[in-house]
Every structure is written in C-alpha cells, then in structure tokens.
Amino acid sequence: MSFGANSILDMGRWALFASQTQLQVTGQNIANVNTDGYSRRSVVLEEGMYIDYSPGQLGTGVVAKEVVRHFDDMVEAMYLQQSALTDKWGNLWEQLKSVENLLNESSGTGVSDSLSKYFNSWNEVSQRPDNYGARQTVLNDAATLISTLRQVDTDLSLMQERINGDVAAQVNEANKLMEEIASLNEEIQVHNVEGQNNANALFDERARKVRDLAKLVDVKTIDNGGGNFTILTQAGQTLVDGESHFSLEFNSAVKTEDLRPDSTFAGNVYFDGNDDYEYTIEFVASNSGSTEAGQVTSGSNSAEFRVSLDGGVSWLTNEDGSERRFHARDYDSRVNVEGLQIWFGSDTNSKGTPAGTFQKGDRYIISPHQGLYWVQNTSSVEEITPQQHFNGEENSRRLTGGSIAALLTFRDTYVGKYRSKLDELARTVVWETNRRHSQGAGLQTYTTLDGTYQVDYTNKALASDSTGLAFGDKLQSGSSFVYIYNESTGLLASSAALDFDGNGGTFNPAIHTLEDVVTAFDNTYGNMIDASIVNNKIQLKAADGYSFAFGTDSAGLYAALGINTFFRGETAKDMVINEKISSDIDYLATGHVNGSGEMNAGDNSTALSMYKLREENVTTHTAHEGATTQTILDYYNGIVGNVGSDTNRAEFNKNFYGTLSNDLNERQQQVSGVNLDEEMSDLIKYQASYTAAAKLISTADQMLQTILSLKP
Fold it and tell me: What burial letters (b/e) apply to 227-266, b meaning 16+ CB within 10 Å?
C-alpha cells in the first residue's frame, strides 16, 4: 500500500464518517432526553490498521466500530426486585387505607358505638323490665348492631369482589407483556450482531416491558446475550424463555391430590362452600407406629385427617389448644370444617363410595376461591396465589411481589382475616346473648315454639362434625330444665330436667341426637308437651290447657337449638333477631323462673346478666389466632387495632422499599440517563472533529491538485 495524498484523503473520509456518526448518536440522545426507558448511546471508535513503512509505522485513521447502549444489568436486576416489593406494599397500603376508613369510629356510628348502645339498652330495661318502651329499645338497638355489622361485612365483601376484577385485568396485562417480550427476543435474535450491529432500541423496549412486568409480578432475569433472555418469578416459575412464553390464569376453585406411593385410596375429595383460605388436608396414622390411616367409613374407625389453612405450617386446633381431627366420611356423612363441607367419593361420582386405604401423609389441597395459576402447558398447572402463614411468614414458593400479589394478599390475608374476626365477633354476641336469654323468661309463657337452628342429620350426635349444627361445638354435658303451667290456673304443673334415659340421665353432646332430644321432651313431660322435628329443627307444642317456660340449662342445649333465644344466625351476614320476639316483645326474656316456678314481671335478672356481658371476658376462637379471652368490646377494638397496625406496616414497607428502588433507579440513570450538559459538550467536540476531518480532506485535495498541476 502506498502512502501519499490519496491515503490522507481516505483517512479524512473515515474521520468524517466517525464524527458524523458521533454527531448523529449525540443528536439521538438529545432528542430522547425525556423518552421513558431510553438508554444513552455512544460510538466506540477504534484506530485503523497500521502499516509498516519507512520511516516507521503509519496509521490509516479511525474506524467507528459500533454504537453501544449504556446500561447496568446488575443494578437493573436489583431494581426489579425492589420495584416489585414497592408496588406490592404501595398497593397494599392504598387498599388498607380504605378498610381503615371503613372502621373509623370517630363518627359515632360504628360497630363499637352500636355494641355499647346494645349493652346499655339491657341496662335500661333492667330498671323497667315490664316497660314496653324499654323492651322495644332493646330490639331497636339490637337491629342497629346487626345492620352495622352486616354493612361492614358487605363492604369488605365488595372490596374482595372488586379485587377479583382488578386481578383478572392485571393477569391479562401480564400475559400480554410476556408475549411481547418473547416477540422482542425473537426480533433481537434477528437484528442483533454482537459487536457490529447492536439492537439498542429493541433492548430498551424489552427493558421497559420487563419493568412493567415487574410492577405486576416479582421477577428475576437471566441474560445470556441477545435474544437468549429468560424471565422467572422469584419462586422460580418461568414466564419467558427466549422466544417462548408461558401464561398466568385466574381460575375458580380447584383441588389437587398428593398421595403417598403406597396409598391405595381410589377416589377423590369433594367440597361445598367457599372461603378466603386454602385448605390442606393431611391424613394421620390410625395407630402409633403405623403408616396406615384407614378408609372412608361412617363409623368411629374411619381414617382421620387434620386441616391447615396456611399451607401446612400450622393446624386447626380446639379451644383447649389440642389439634383438631376430622373423620373421612362419604357424602351422606360429610363433615363441616370451618367454611366448607368436605367428603370423599369415587372418582366419577361425588356421592359414590370410594375404595382403598389412606396412608399417613396423604394430602389434598382445596382452594375454594379464585386463585392465580402458572400454566406451563395444558397438563401442568401450578398455583402461585400468594399465601401468608399464620406466623407472619410468606410462602416463598408462591408470588411474593408486584401489584397482583398485593391485591390477592389484601383479598385473602387481610380482608379474609378481618371478615373472619368480624364473623367471630357476631358469633360470640349471638351465642353469649342466646346462652343467657334461653335460660330466662319474659312476660308470658309459650304454647308453641320453633327452634331456629337446624341440623343436617337428625340421627347424628349434636356435637359431631357431620351434624352441621351451628353451635354444636359449644355444647357440653349437663341438665336442661323446663317448667309447665296450667293455663287456666297459672299454677306450675310440672318442672324437671330433660330425661335422656328414663332414669334422670343428662344430655351428652357426643352421643345424643336431635331425635334423642325430641324423645326426651316427649318422655319427660308425658302428654303436656309434644316435640317433633320440622325441617331438621325442633318444634315444641304444649297440649291444650298448658304452656311452658325454660330454666337453667348447663348443657347449652337450648341456645344451640335456638329454643327461647334472642338471635338466630351465626355470622355478620345472617345474624337477625328471632322473629318470635320481634313479633311479640312479651317473649323478650328480662327475668327468670325462680325456685318456686314463678315468673315475675319485675324480675330483671336476665337483663342484668346481659348488661354484665359488656364487662365479662368471653372466649373467642379463629383459625389464625386460636382461642383468646377478653371482653366483646375489647375483641372488636382489637380488630380495629389490627387494621391500624397493618396499614402502618404497609406504609413503612412502601417507604422503605420505595427508597431502595428509587436509589437503584438513580444509579441506573447515572449510567443510562441522558445529561444535556454532557451531550452539548460532546456536540461541540464532535462538530470540531467533523470540521477538522473536512479540513483534512480539503488539504489532501489541494495536495492532489498541486501534484496534478506539475508539468513534466
């Protein structure tokens, strides 16, 4: 290769091209200074080749090798994680503020105020037991309490329904982003040639969409260069793998099976009802040292299982703290577990009899609500609905970040918990009121009375999980007294406790059925009371010329069957005043039947016991808290306190993770952001380089002209 004017001209041409490229890239940076997700670009220059020559090596100029994108992948990976947590806690905080506003007691019309007025009304009627105005006030304040509890529960339920709609929309958005990212990976694979033609715009677009996806779900990325780019959840489910993408689904209730290899059970689990919790059913050994759990039968030797509502970390307990066990039953003996009825049937028929034997450790998981699922293919679906254990830890195998996780966590963990505690509050008010009222007396006796609580099976023990009696778990062994009067004289005709065996036997909830209770009424009082079962509820009718009233009931039988009770129902949703009382307030029990069998209009003993309930400690029991003891008002104030502490925690975490993500974003912007001062400085520098390169070409041209003008 010869050197001279031509080589200088060529050198100038390449320098001109390099400066022009730098000017163009700088102009692109300036133009996109406000473009979201744009990463600053720059031109990599490289010296041209060297030629050995005399008097020494001479260069050939400059080469504009490639246009590179300034982006810190490590910082971005950390940012994505913190961003997902920021969006999770930010969304949770926004949602929890609405619950906090719902339970705001400052207006004087909340649940706490309604509870206080309800208890105070009993105090007022205790001072004037026979005053109809005072008696009506009790009913009015009870109706207000019911309305307030129901409104709060309804509002919380509407929040959950709204959340389901929001989650469905965000799942669709996430699926669209995953599809678009996979498509971008395919484009990058075509256009990107490492070190020569960097698809910078496509990389920027992909990074923007990954950030958008991280706002919805927690993600981590694996970048092997070009289109070989993988996105996974923090738990490890693959969302995008190069040109392939998977999907998320928001489905209705499902159940999954996890049987041991040596299990011979041939059937399936079935359920009825819905709940905010996921149920894990695990079978336990029938005998110590055995691996066999047993079969599905209606007898006492059936397989036993325990139930967890937090993924198997903790198990449901009785009020005494012992672990609750349930028997594996068929459809005709299905058991009640919290909010569900559960039974076992054949694979093809839910009412069919299953075969085989369960082994210790056999599991079924029931998700009785809409949940989030990762779909790998039509035959492989995995639930990733966020789950929080009752010890406060999150299930790390599920979704833990992003707005979808926030919404589902709010729906299940938070609102589910609040509704559960609100129902327990209503249940406690109903039971404690009915327990006292059922042993009291109003201004007149009964000639006919219908129980308000029904059973699923009239021939099963009332405390059995299969009976379906709302307050069957509250029953205990004891005596239940009835007083019978001659209507014409008003004198006591008979008084005795129910006789369950003909020899003065008392009630045993583990043995006696509703049919046994009916028989006890008929046998104890001869023909003076006729007991029967109507619509699986007890019905009592006095014979002509007689009436009856109720006394001490140490078994809780009257309250459990809805005999002489003030409320019916058991939750905030179905709690109402007993129609027998609301239609005739003479039946409002303010007094009691004394030792002589007398009912006195001025007796206020039951009314006083109702008012004292305001300050008495009662036992409440929920799946996530177990048994606790405090007053009813303190229990409700605890719910309000829970909401406040949950809201404050969400706000703290939002600020904490927001600070971290903002810091990481700023670090990324320091690398990839466009600084106009720097770009203007570079623009002047590249302009000068361009001018100098042009001058070099002009000089080379003059040299050529000089050479050409020489005459031989």
Answer: bebbbbbbbebebbbbbebbbbebeeeeeeeebbeebebe
Evaluate whether 360 touches 293 at the Cβ level (below 8 Å): yes
pLDDT tens column, 505-554: 999 999 999 999 999 999 999 889 999 999 999 999 999 999 999 999 99
Nearest-angstrom CA–CA distance, 278 and 268? 17
CA distance 95 to 411: 9
| Cα–Cα dist 609/612, whole Å | 5
Quick one: 439 exposed, middle or buried, by C-beta within 10 A (0-12, 13-18, 19+)?
buried
Cα(49)–Cα(570) distance, integer angstroms: 89
pLDDT, tens only, 556-579 = 999 999 999 999 999 999 999 999
pLDDT at 346: 93
Longest CA span, the chain: 158
Q: What is the pLDDT of residues 234-269, one digit of tens each?
A: 999 999 999 999 999 998 888 899 999 999 999 999
**Two structure tokens written together for 67:** 């246009």
Residue with tokens 């004198």: 491
What's the predicted TM-score (pTM) here? 0.90
Q: How far apart are CA 410 and CA 402, in angstroms?
A: 12
Q: Specify the residue for token string 């790390």.
A: 396
3-state helix/strand/coil string of 293-318: EECCCCCCCCCEEEEECCCCCCCCEC
Contact assessment for residue 245 and residue 178, using Cβ atoms and an 8 Å cutoff: yes
Q: Residue 328: what residue type?
A: A
Q: Is 358 helix (H, G, I), strand (E, B) or coil?
A: strand
| Residue 465 contacts residue 327 (beta carbons within 8 Å) | yes
CA distance 419 to 412: 10
Q: What is the DSSP letter of 350?
A: T
Q: How do residues 283-305 score in pLDDT, each as one tens digit?
A: 999 887 788 999 999 887 899 99
For 657-683, what is each residue's pLDDT tens digit?
A: 999 999 999 999 999 999 999 999 999
Q: Which residues pair with 245 in a beta bridge?
A: 240
Query: What's residue 1's pLDDT?
Result: 47
CA distance to 534, 544, 597, per residue, from 442 (Å): 25, 21, 13
SS3 content of the chain, % helix, strand, coil (to 5): 40, 20, 35
Query: What average pLDDT score do residues 268-282 get?
Result: 93
Are 295 and 595 in contact by the 8 Å Cβ rule? The answer is: no
438 Cβ contact list (under 8 Å, min separation 6) = 550, 553, 558, 559, 563, 564, 565, 589
Per the document, the length of the chain is 712
